[in-house]
Amino acid sequence: MKFNKVLTSEIDENFNNSLEMSYISRESGGYIAKNHNIFDTIPLNSINKFILRNALFGTAIYKFGDFKDKVMVISGVHGNELSSQRASLLLFEYLLNFPLDTSVYLIPFVAPNSTMNNTRRFNSKDLNRSTYIKGSLTNCILNTIKDLKIDAVADFHTTALNSNPGIESIFCSKEPSLESIKIAEHIASETGSKTIINDKAGFPFKGAVEDESNLEGIPAITCEVVSPFGSIKKGSIERSFLQMKSFLSYF
Question: Which residues contact 2 (CB under 8 A, 6 or more apart)?
């Protein structure tokens, strides 16, 4: 995967950290502005316009900093889980100038087309159950994680009341990557989110980016905040952003 340097002139902002970008897929693009449930919450500054413009052409991935250690943050595996995707825009701006000693790879919109249509699925697939399926969008993300030799992954979602899990939480697993639990417990201690610990990655469900990454020996977690599917509950963006920052502070 070739990354291209992003110039300050492209987003009309000065920033301290190096910034590069590439695309994982060119077949997933979407016009996020069509989904007013998220678009109406986005300030149309030059940074957000840059991100939204890139989402038209597919699944964009951004690299902040250039260090030996590497982590990845993703959101939008389910296009109708909006709070975490909106929080990723806050994280993007935060990472432009926050002092880093770890490279951070950020995918704000995994499937912009699904976000545009405010739908859970992409190409009729639940991407949170498809990471092991060759050629699926999340399988392409997993391959990118392995190719880039990412050290840890955090996948950010939202959950509705009376759904699974239905509470603000962090999924992790004991095996095969025990560090998954250590990361989750760190975030829980800083945010008050509940840890949900599975004995083994990929059980009772398989196909999540978190599970498949852990099975590859790459510590991974899934963070959830509470908000109705397809809309944004007050305060949920800030809670997801807090989880994101706590994940990064572990390293």
Answer: 22
| Mean pLDDT within 24-40 | 98
Fold of 14-249: Aminopeptidase (3.40.630)
Query: Which has the closest alpha carbon to 198: 160, 170, 225?
Result: 170
Residues 166, 227: contact at Cβ < 8 Å?
no
Per-residue three-class SS string for 4-71: EECCHHHHCCCCCCCEEEEEEECCCCCCHHHCHHHHCCCCCCHHHHHHHHHHCCCEEEEEECCCCCEE
By C-alpha distance, which of 245, 227, 229 is closest to 237?
227
Q: HSE on the CB side for 148, CA within 13 Å?
A: 29
Average pLDDT over all residues of the chain: 97
pTM exceeds 0.85: yes
Burial-class residue 93 by CB neighbours within 10 Å (0-12, 13-18, 19+).
middle
Over residues 119-157, the pLDDT tens digits come to 999 999 999 999 999 999 999 999 999 999 999 999 999
